[in-house]
């Protein structure tokens, strides 16, 4: 395995080797020497270039760039720019013309590239160096050599090159030097073009003109060759010829001298090597001459062989050098290849070494790890054995634990069972306790009723004072007992969450004022001043009177209870919390609350220190607080022992929708608006000559008897001891009114009412429900089931009588109303097409439809009609009487005559036909009946109606 650390090491090594290879000897930085040549043709020019190349070949670091303008100055100018752009570090320029290249040289100067002028100057002063021959010196050397050969006397012809500074200088030097030899005379000048032929005609003519000519000086060897050919043609082999250039090689100056075609040639160096040498000095920042004038030597028969040999030697040496250089390059390439291969090998070797080392180390550490693993395995075995042993021990413990858990679970279940049992028992006790409280209310009602009756009834005034006092005592204590029982029931309701708030929009000031007023007599008796101080005349808010009544009642009773004579109770009402809340304060100047009682007074059944006179239960404040919280408010207090106590109730003005009700108060409904019957009635009387029949359904025999006794002086009374008996009796007798208890075994009062309402025979009978249940929602339940009035026990018997009278009177009023309606118009007929959900309405629809279906039958009996509707004859009789206030036969006649009126409007039917149609066999009986009901005879009715419509 190759460890990551080894791999890293290997990588480092390889990169090190790479950089070693990179550090191998590399050529020094390359210089570029650019050479711009005006023209490359011609031996002299070739010699110039060859000289440069030769010199450059000694310097491998030099890159040599050449350009040939082929005699075109403009092109040369462009080429100088090209060389500058190609990155030349030094420029060697051999100008074509003095003027043409100046701007190019200026440009090089601007770019900081030094320029070496070769052979010719330009007009620009911004050149770095000049290398070139001394043309005047060449001219002078030619003159001195001519004088020597002519022994200072003779005739000379000069052949000038095409006009240029070169030819001018050579001519000047030549002429000047000849002045030293007065006996030498230049007889003529010929201007050539540096070539061999153009001069020949003019020279030929001149030689013929001056046959005494001894010597010709041509400015170049080539022109000297031309002159030689002219002289040969003229047979003037005696004329000496001197040329300029003296180059080696075939056809050049040296060969001409050696073969005798020229007497001498003046060596004029092309300066290639020298120019490169100066360039190198500049590149290497060495000192150099700015003006490098090259000297000349005379080549003649004396030294020509030596010079030729030297030139050949140089040429062959040059060839050798080039060969060696070629060899060197080959060797260098081989060397580079081998070096690369070597480094590669080295790297591979090193990598192998490193890998080997790593492998060796890995193997060694593997061995160590294996040994360690083996050791650990042994240890693990020991541990495992230990674990197995411990597991076994754990199993034993677990088994013990699970046994214990089992026991604990069993115990817990037992406890849970016991708790559940306790809960069930407690619940049963509480239920018993609640039911028991309910039960207490019935006997209390039975005590309260007669006592109230004795004290306030018509015989009250006749009571002996001692009896009146005793009865008062009975009444007060009964009231107190009732209050306690009610509080207990409320407590239970709050406990089981059954107490619901049903708030209405109300005025708190008016409500509290009413309550305070009820306490005024008691306060007067106790000689306590009771003040009511509302901060505003009205304070609207959402209030549940039923709930708050109990709260303020308790606070006021406490204040009265704990304030001795001479004290004062002040009740204040004001808006709080920026109008968001309402506050009621009950402040007394009584005994105050002891600090040790303060934390507990809101606890159920807690009683603080009691004065001897006070009778308490410890429920009042707990109940008050529970109720205030239900009403989303809070109850606070402050007290100072011996100074008095202040209780403050804070209530929100607004209550959430679920705590609001828009239903009217059931009491108001019961007392002021007995349920109106939906159908018109005709008479107020019940069965002729008889008192109305009242059915009392009450399971408590005492209450039943008590109520019956109270009602007997005024009504016929029937009693039933339970719901189903009562229901049956109601159906049989069709009473005028039913008084029914709510809480009964078997059928409850609410169920009795519901069944009464569902049956056509009894649906019209008014019902007064009696109950010990006070909750408003139960009263609503009763009213919803169809009760007309809901009375709470203990009820005042006088009030019960009043309620019965009111209901019956209402019924009479309804009959009156219906009679007028029915008598007046046909629309009083219930509309059979739209069945009414109201049972009485439905009954009337069915009855009317039944009569109308048998209208032509003259012998339709009440029995038949009752049977068709599922009634007995008496039931139908009482039902129709109760609903319509009339007899069945009367109603049958009403239906017949109403139909007759309709038919009379059709004048195609005779009166007799109409009578027959509506079940009358006798025309006169029909007419009499019609007139009796509508005060007009059928014929008059028809005549009047037809007149009206006409
Ligand atoms: P109780 O039926 O005993 O009055 P409450 O729950 O109404 O029960 O009150 C609890 C206790 O708080 C009372 O026993 C009494 O010690 C104390 N208390 C309540 N209201 C007052 C008050 N206005 N002045 C002095 N003490 C009061």
From TrEMBL:
It catalyses: ATP + protein L-histidine = ADP + protein N-phospho-L-histidine. Pfam families: HATPase_c, HisKA, HTH_18, Peripla_BP_4, Response_reg. The modification 4-aspartylphosphate is found at residue 741. Transmembrane segments: none annotated. Residues 366-428 form a coiled coil. Residues 818-839 are annotated as: Disordered. Residues 845-944 form the HTH araC/xylS-type domain. Residues 435-655 form the Histidine kinase domain. Residues 824-839 have a biased composition (Low complexity). The keyword DNA-binding applies. Residues 693-808 form the Response regulatory domain. PANTHER family: HYBRID SIGNAL TRANSDUCTION HISTIDINE KINASE C, TWO-COMPONENT HISTIDINE KINASE. This is histidine kinase. It comes from Hymenobacter guriensis.
């Amino acid at each position: 395995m190759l460890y990551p650390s080894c791999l890293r090491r290997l990588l480092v090594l390889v990169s090190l080797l790479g950089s070693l290879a990179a550090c191998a000897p590399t050529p020094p930085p390359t210089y570029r020497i650019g050479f711009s040549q005006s023209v490359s043709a011609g031996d002299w020019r070739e010699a110039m270039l060859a000289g440069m190349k030769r010199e450059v070949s000694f310097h491998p670091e030099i890159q040599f760039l050449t350009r040939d303008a082929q005699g075109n100055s403009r092109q040369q100018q462009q080429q100088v720019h090209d060389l500058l752009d190609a990155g030349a570090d030094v420029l060697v320029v051999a100008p074509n013309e003095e003027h043409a290249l100046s701007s190019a040289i200026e440009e090089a100067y601007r770019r900081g590239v030094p320029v070496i002028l070769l052979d010719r100057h330009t007009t620009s002063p911004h050149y770095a160096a000049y290398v070139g021959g001394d043309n005047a010196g060449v001219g002078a050397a030619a003159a001195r050599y001519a004088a020597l050969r002519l022994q200072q006397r003779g005739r000379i012809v000069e052949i000038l090159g095409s006009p240029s500074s070169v030819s001018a200088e050579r001519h000047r030097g030549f002429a000047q030097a000849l002045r030293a030899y007065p006996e030498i005379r230049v007889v003529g000048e010929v201007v050539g073009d540096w070539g061999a032929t153009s001069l020949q005609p003019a020279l030929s003519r001149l030689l013929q003109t001056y046959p005494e000519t001894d010597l010709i000086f041509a400015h170049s060897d080539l022109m000297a060759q031309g002159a030689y050919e002219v002289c040969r043609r003229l047979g003037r082999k005696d004329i000496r010829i001197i040329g300029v250039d003296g180059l080696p090689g075939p056809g050049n100056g040296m060969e001409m001298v050696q073969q005798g075609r020229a007497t001498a040639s003046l060596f004029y160096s092309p300066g290639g090597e020298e120019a490169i040498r100066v360039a190198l000095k500049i590149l290497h920042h060495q000192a150099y001459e700015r003006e490098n004038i090259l000297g000349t030597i005379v080549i003649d028969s004396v030294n020509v062989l030596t010079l030729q040999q030297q030139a050949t030697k140089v040429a062959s040496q040059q060839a050798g050098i080039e060969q060696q250089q070629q060899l060197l390059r080959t060797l260098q390439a081989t060397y580079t290849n081998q070096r690369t291969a070597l480094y590669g090998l080295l790297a591979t070797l090193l990598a192998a070494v490193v890998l080997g080392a790593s492998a060796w180390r890995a193997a060694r550490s593997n061995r160590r790890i294996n040994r360690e693993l083996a050791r650990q395995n042994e240890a693990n075995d020991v541990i495992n054995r230990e674990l197995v042993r411990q597991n076994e021990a754990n199993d034993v413990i677990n088994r013990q634990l699970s046994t214990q858990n089992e026991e604990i679970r069993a115990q817990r279940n037992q406890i849970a069972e016991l708790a559940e049992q306790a809960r069930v028992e407690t619940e049963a006790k509480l239920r018993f306790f609640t039911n028991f409280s309910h039960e207490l209310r019935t006997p209390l009602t039975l005590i309260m009723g007669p006592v109230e009756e004795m004290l306030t009834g018509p015989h009250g005034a006749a009571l002996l004072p001692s009896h009146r006092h005793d009865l008062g005592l009975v009444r007060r204590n009964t009231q107190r007992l009732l209050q306690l029982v009610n509080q207990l029931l409320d407590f239970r309701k709050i406990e089981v969450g059954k107490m619901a708030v049903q708030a209405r929009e109300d005025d708190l000031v008016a409500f509290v004022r009413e309550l305070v007023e009820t306490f005024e007599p008691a306060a007067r008796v106790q000689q306590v001043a009771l003040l009511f101080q509302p901060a505003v005349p009205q304070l609207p808010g959402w209030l549940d009177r039923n709930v708050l009544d109990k709260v303020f009642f308790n606070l006021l009773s406490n204040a009265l209870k704990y304030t001795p004579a001479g004290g004062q109770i002040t009740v204040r009402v004001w808006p709080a919390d920026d109008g968001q809340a309402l506050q009621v304060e009950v402040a007394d100047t009584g005994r105050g609350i002891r600090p040790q009682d303060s934390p507990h007074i809101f606890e159920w059944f807690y009683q603080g220190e009691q004065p001897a006179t006070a009778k308490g239960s410890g429920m009042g404040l707990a109940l008050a607080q529970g109720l205030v919280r239900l009403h989303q408010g809070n109850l606070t207090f402050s007290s100072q022992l011996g100074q008095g106590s202040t209780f403050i109730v804070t209530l929100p003005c607004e209550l959430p929708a679920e705590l609001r009700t828009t239903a009217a108060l059931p009491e108001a409904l019961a007392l002021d608006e007995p349920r109106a019957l939906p159908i018109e009635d005709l008479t107020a009387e019940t069965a002729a000559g008889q008192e109305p029949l009242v059915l009392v359904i009450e399971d408590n025999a005492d209450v039943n008897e008590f109520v019956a006794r109270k009602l007997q002086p005024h009504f016929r009374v029937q009693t039933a001891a339970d719901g189903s008996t009562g229901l049956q009796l109601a159906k049989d007798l069709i009473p005028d009114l039913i008084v029914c208890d709510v809480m009964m075994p078997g059928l409850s009062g609410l169920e009795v009412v519901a069944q009464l309402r569902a049956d056509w025979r009894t649906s019209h009978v008014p019902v007064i429900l009696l109950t010990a249940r006070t909750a408003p929602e139960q009263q609503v339940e009763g009213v919803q089931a169809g009760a007309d009035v809901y009375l709470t026990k203990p009820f005042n018997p006088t009030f019960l009588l009043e309620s019965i009278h009111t209901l019956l009177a209402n019924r009479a009023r309804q009959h009156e109303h219906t009679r007028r309606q029915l008598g007046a118009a046909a629309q009083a007929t219930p509309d059979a097409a739209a069945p009414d959900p109201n049972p009485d309405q439905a009954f009337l629809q069915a009855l009317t439809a039944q009569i109308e279906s048998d209208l032509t039958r003259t012998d339709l009996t009440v029995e038949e009609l009752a049977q068709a509707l599922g009634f007995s004859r008496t039931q139908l009789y009482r039902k129709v009487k109760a609903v319509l206030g009339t007899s069945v036969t009367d109603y049958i006649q009403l239906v017949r005559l109403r139909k007759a009126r309709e038919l009379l409007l059709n004048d195609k039917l005779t009166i007799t036909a109409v009578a027959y149609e509506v079940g009358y066999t006798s025309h006169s009986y029909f007419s009499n009946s019609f007139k009796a009901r509508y005060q007009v005879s059928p014929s008059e009715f028809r005549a009047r109606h037809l007149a009206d419509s006409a």
